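Notebook entry, structure prediction.
Reason for the run: the old model in the group folder had no record of what sequence produced it. Starting over properly, with the input documented here first.
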Amino acid sequence: MSDVRSLADEYWTLYRENDQFTALWEGELEYLERWQDLSERGIAAYRTALLDIASRAEAARQTADATEEITLSTVAWHARSAAAQNEARAELELHNPVIGAYSDLATFLPRYTLVTEDHGRRYLEKLRKLPLMLGEMIGGLERGRDKGWVPNELHVQMMMDVLDRALSSDAAHDPLAGQPPPREGEHPDWHEQVVAIVRDDIQPALGRYREALETVALPAAPSVDTPGLCHLDGGEDLYRRLVAGFTTTTLSPEEVHERGLEQVARLDDEYRELGGSALGVTDLPTIYSRLREDTSLHYDDVDTLIADATEMFRRAQAEAPNWFRRTPQSDCEVRPTTSGAMAFYSGPNPETGKPAAFYFNVEDPSLWGPQLASTTFHEGIPGHHFDLARSIENEAMHLVHRKMYIAAFNEGWALYSERLSDEMGLFRDDIERLGMLGADSLRACRLVVDTGMHLHGWSRDRAVQYMLDNSPLPRGEIEAEIDRYIGNPGQAVAYMIGRLEIVAARRFAEESLGSDFEIADFHEAVLGHGTVPLETMRRSVEAWVASVA
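New structure, fully documented this time:
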């Protein structure tokens, strides 16, 4: 086991030293002053190291025992996925207006939990180094132009508009200048120091980046009618690697597409049943229209929105012990925000005291309606707070299981949790259950439109229209979703594939054990090893079933 732990340690160090955007999201302080090396040489060296570790982990799996194999499979899948994600990151993903680098910076750079004076020093160093990374992002645009890998024209223009708005404010009111000082020590001039760096270093660098978008990327940008990887030289092969890495399965993009079509079709009867009881209509287009446009189903004030989300969260917290053997020790705060994605979860950091938090965007409360409940349960309890916080708190696990993220497992669990919440009695009425179906439609449609664009060559408009025809999401939200899938190919299909695999594992356990099946024990079998690939999760459930039988 010592050799396995040594290899896992090596991978953990490599990953944390390099993937600073994940560290930014999580508020990690270990390499606080760093940014990822986005130069051509830096990316190539990182990918070479990732693939080397993946190969060694795969070779070691052949002679590993059951416990060792859990860690080795996690390292191998995660490393290969990270290598694929970094193939086009500097050319394409980081420049996306919805999920790109600037969105992460504006959302998370001002939200570190700084404790010591050393944290403060290193944070200021991080700010001073940001222009270097922005310069490397310009280099990525230039390399992408030379090989024909450029974001589509709509996204380039949208990113320019985002930066224009950001640069129109003075540095004192820039989101990047909002970081509070460390808790320890006296920092009377902290804000002034941060503002000075933003004004003198960061804003000029953002201006240069914005100019490069206009002069380097925009003239070479493809039409919005061809946003998929399949239109790029070598793009289809890259997409196949991304789908495999994100889903941690051997499913092909073609199989993912077909599963999506099947899931979309299966939701029709559920919509008709709940639409009849809750809305008095069974026609699908009418149900979708009501859920989108009926203002009585949506929020019109922020205070009520926040109060309802908080109440839903606390009800889930009270019911959870009846369904789980272990619940997280750390609390999870409900935090409204006016920036970033519609909703997201940020895990606890026991070392700094950073609490877990469920963030949801309340800038426009009318965007929230029946889906509030399923979103709250997905991001909080029993969703991400239970799969992520439990792992983070379990010091007996290796860090690759405690703190790494595998979309198919973590998002698959969170999506499974939405349906589980209905079993737990957490939905108050059929309107909220229709919101749950809307969330299901979103994730099922993702299987179709992500593969539609990146494998089958769909246009952005065709993808948008498919989701309008097959889900109750409003057009604005659908367009933001589609722009996300364009910028991060393959990631979004992991949600529904993960849920389907967890549901299949549960069905296997229920059929195998009959009256001996215990839902809390099943959940422990799924979550008990922390973050793992789906194949490893399935073997864990099979081992539990065998032990009970």
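Summary: The longest helix spans residues 117-147.
The old model has been moved to the deprecated folder.
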